[in-house]
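Bench log. Compound arrived from synthesis this morning; before running ITC I wanted a structural hypothesis for how adenosine-5'-triphosphate sits in the protein. Inputs:
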Amino acid sequence: MMMFSFGCWRKVLNLCLKPVRNLVDYLVFSSREKELTAKGIIKMEGTKTSITNLKIPDGVVGDSMRERTKTFTYDFSYDSMDCKSSSFVSQEKVFRDLGCDVLKAAFEGYNACVFAYGQTSSGKSYTMMGVPVR
Ligand SMILES: Nc1ncnc2c1ncn2[C@@H]1O[C@H](COP(=O)(O)OP(=O)(O)OP(=O)(O)O)[C@@H](O)[C@H]1O
């Protein structure tokens, strides 16, 4: 499991599913971040998630520890920043990709566990529970 500290406006959610053991990266802005007009530094493309360090000027070549953009590969990378974006991933899609097999296994009598890991306010509860039903 990865442990990142990308700053308070960075949103990462990692889900570790047992026994499937998928590694997942998940991205969304909070309302506070939206108010502060925070810039997105995370990009999802397929199974890859890239993070850009804006403090490192574009085009500057430094040592490998100081790359402007770092890319990580997961089993799934989900972008939930903008529901109008073509790459937007809904709760339903996350559930279909990650939850269905676990639920099926549970109904078949196997032990199953969905585990959410991430920094505070990164969306663990939201991803697991959704929004409260009125
Ligand atoms: N995919 C998403 N789409 C829209 N809003 C989201 C999403 N994920 C999280 N949020 C919102 O971001 C806020 C923080 O999410 P949440 O409470 O789930 O984080 P958490 O990781 O469980 O936090 P903590 O570790 O503090 O318990 C909530 O207001 C939630 O509604």
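What the model suggests: The CA atoms of residues 59 and 68 lie 8 Å apart. The two ends are 35 Å apart (CA to CA).
ITC booked for Thursday regardless.
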